[in-house]
Write a structure and sequence with these properties.
It is a single chain. With about 350 residues, the protein is an alpha/beta fold. About 40% of the residues lie in helices and about 15% in strands. The chain contains twelve helices and ten strands. An eight-stranded parallel β-barrel has the order 3-4-5-6-7-8-9-10. Strands 1-2 form a two-stranded antiparallel sheet. The chain is globular. The two termini are about 40 Å apart.
């Protein structure tokens, strides 16, 4: 009857209080099921107020609506942009499909591994029904300029290129770590205008050398530019901070992660540790605490996105080749098999996701 509903803070999802307490049993779900077609953003705030988002989460929970995993695979460490071998691509894509991957991420700039073969790439993506996540690096790698305007020009060029190649969204290594907060805010505000102009969805990776190289600057920028979306590669934050955010210094970490989690639309499932951005082998018992810490963070992100109404979520095993992958001195022999490492973490992600959201 247009009354303002109020969800009791800290109480379980089956109790809502307005003028009276309503216990939601299965027979009441029809009353609230219209939220599935009218999510909170489209419901009049004057009628439902802040309770609308809580009700939407409640209905999803009670109807056991699942969020589908889109397991994504980076081509970093698999294909070499300096060694174009088209005859290897079809067997590779077939193998990735067999392992359960549904999307591919690769760089669309100087490291494009299908140079001169754009049509073949599109054909393979269609054949295997893969989504394409285009990766862009503003001002290249190594970074060639510190000027905001140069990064914006580079950003526009590469996002346009990703769109032409059929990307469903873009993952950007963007900006520069030495910028001031005001420079970062200027840059990201203008990227949003470019995104809208080009009609592309772009998320920005937490990465060393870039603006989002640590959690605190990321939080501060996102507070100023709240429409930004993030790709969480927390392995970089772990090595920058030299810890797993689990000591007395980190009483702000839970709230910071809670704030950022709904804005994180892709997880790069690589595990870092205090002295490096990539554990040599995540299956090794000596890295158990690092693996479990990252998994806990990923779960927080997934839960926030499910509560916000997401029905699909992209997670990408992204362990990389040397020098990320450790090698033996003098010989440069890798200490682990990169394919097997990514497959291991991929299976673990699938299992964790299925235990929470059901079989995908």
């Amino acid at each position: 009857r247009g009354e303002r509903l109020m969800v009791e803070p800290g109480r379980t999802h089956n109790r809502i209080r307005s003028t009276a307490t309503v216990r939601l049993q299965n027979r009441h779900l029809n009353i609230f099921s219209f939220f599935l077609c009218h999510p909170p953003s489209s419901v009049s705030a004057s009628i439902f107020g802040s309770a609308s988002s809580h009700l939407f989460s409640l209905v999803r929970y009670r109807l056991k609506i699942t969020m589908k995993l889109k397991l994504t695979r980076t081509l970093w460490g698999i294909l070499d942009c300096n060694k174009i071998e088209p005859w290897t691509w079809d067997p590779l894509f077939s193998k990735l499909k067999d392992e359960g991957y549904e999307a591919i991420e690769t760089n669309v700039g100087p490291f494009w591994p299908f140079a001169g073969h754009d049509d073949e790439f599109r054909s393979l993506m269609k054949k295997y029904n893969f989504d394409f996540v285009g990766q862009v690096h503003t001002c290249g790698y190594p970074i060639s300029s510190r000027k905001v305007e140069d990064h914006l020009a580079s950003y526009r060029t590469h996002v346009q290129r990703a769109k032409e190649l059929g990307a469903v969204f873009v993952n950007a290594h963007s900006g520069l770590d030495s910028w001031s907060l005001e420079q970062a805010v200027e840059f990201y505000t203008k990227t949003l205008a470019i995104d809208e102009e080009l009609g592309m969805r772009v998320i920005h990776e937490t990465h060393r050398q870039r603006v989002f190289f640590n959690p605190w600057i990321t939080r501060d920028v996102v507070k100023r530019v709240p429409a930004l979306k993030i790709n969480a590669d927390f392995s970089h934050w772990v090595v920058v901070a030299e810890r797993l955010f689990d000591d007395s210094l980190d009483d702000d970490w839970p709230e910071l992660l809670k704030f950022l989690a709904p804005k994180i639309k892709l997880v790069h499932a690589r595990v870092g540790y205090a002295e490096g951005p990539q554990v040599p082998d995540p299956s090794a018992p000596e890295y158990k605490s690092a693996v479990e810490a990252h998994e806990k963070w990923w779960k927080t992100i997934w839960e926030a996105n499910a509560a916000a109404g997401a029905t699909v979520y992209y997670v990408e095993p992204e362990f990389g080749p040397a020098p990320y992958l450790h090698t033996l001195p003098h010989t440069n022999v890798p200490v682990a098999d990169l394919w097997q490492v990514n497959s291991w973490i991929g299976r673990r992600v699938q299992a964790h996701f299925a235990s929470t959201y059901g079989s995908n």
